[in-house]
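#structure-requests
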Amino acid sequence: MNSENNAKVFFLFIGDIVALYASLFITLALRYSSDFYDQFVRFHVFPFTIIFGIWVVVFYISGLYDLRRLRNNLDFLKTLALAIFINGLLATVFFYFFPFSGITPKTNLFISIAIFAFIEIFWRRLFNKFASSGEAPNRVLIIGNSKTAEEVSNLISTNPQFGYKIVSHISEEKANGESSLRAIVKERSINVVVVPRHLKHNSNFTNELYRLLSQGVEIHDLANFYELVMRKIPLADVDETWFLDHLVNRSKFYSQLKRAGEVLLAILLQIALLPFELIIALITKITSPGPALYKQIRVGKNDKEFALYKFRTMRIDAEKNGAQWSGTEDNRVTPFGKLLRRTHFDELPQLINVIKGDLSFVGPRPERPEFVTILKEKIPYYDIRHIVQPGVTGWAQINYRYGASVEDAYEKLQHEIYYIKNRSIILDLAIIIKTIRSVFINHG
């Protein structure tokens, strides 16, 4: 989110690494006494380092490095306990089904996991308490009473671990009085001022902001600060010039590298998963009348239409009255279709779309032409999502619930524009990992 929060996450990561190796050291000391260091170096350091690397990845997938979730509540403790349990299972599989490490540390592994669980729960609760307490280093003044400003203010107020504190929230009229703005900043020790984008076109107000800037005060426009905190773009506070300034095309090398990697991965996955897909197709045919594979027209990059492939999850007559959005409790979905949707296995045939070049693994989800026509009329800048390749999964899919209305599409578009603006290999990998989390850990 910012350098201070990145430092918090890095500190948290280092603490986890220390807890992991400390639990192993304590276990070996209990088991081997004076020979524990020799045991560590000769037999345990290499295989356990691999295991610890996997464990950290599981922690990340579980959301345990997301500052938004780091609170000492029941939900956090359940997530941490589940992640430790999964790590224990993975370690057991690693040592007993892939014994190339030369050891099968049954007792050592059990003791190490138990010690780590104790240390980790203590460390995490301590970190969460520390991150949420004390004086926030960023004291914020927000100018304006828009919905966007209210959203930012509410999120910061409920997430003190972000390192921000709203110490003043004033109207644009009050802020336009030069002396009052400077007085508020000085009186309340404010070091971050957030202003609506349009106020920067006021020359007198801009001069006042410049004076504050020279005094060490950070100046953010509301749209950028909203993006920083919320990780989406506020459609109500941007205009055409914002898109011209921020949605620059990535290099051809990036696009070509991404495309080549995705085609290779899609081919390998399609070969590996083909037997599983055949089983899904057979069960679909047996459990409900109609074809196993379903083809639906979607809108892709540059408004080009293509046929999207999915396993059928609805009754064959689901759209006898025309196209309509599907909700989470749609009675048109078959019993087996519910399972496929819950696990996202209905989307496996989209590997064919990736190979053909219709889809990327990551990007805005492609919508149906019937809905695109409606959404373009009702949502500003909706067509901007078509400047990039649509994806099997995306930033909106991992950050927002299943969409089934114009309001949902509006909210998802704010996430999609964030992705288009910030897309990179690192962000793509993060989205893929978090998609895995939604399938295996948090698909409720």
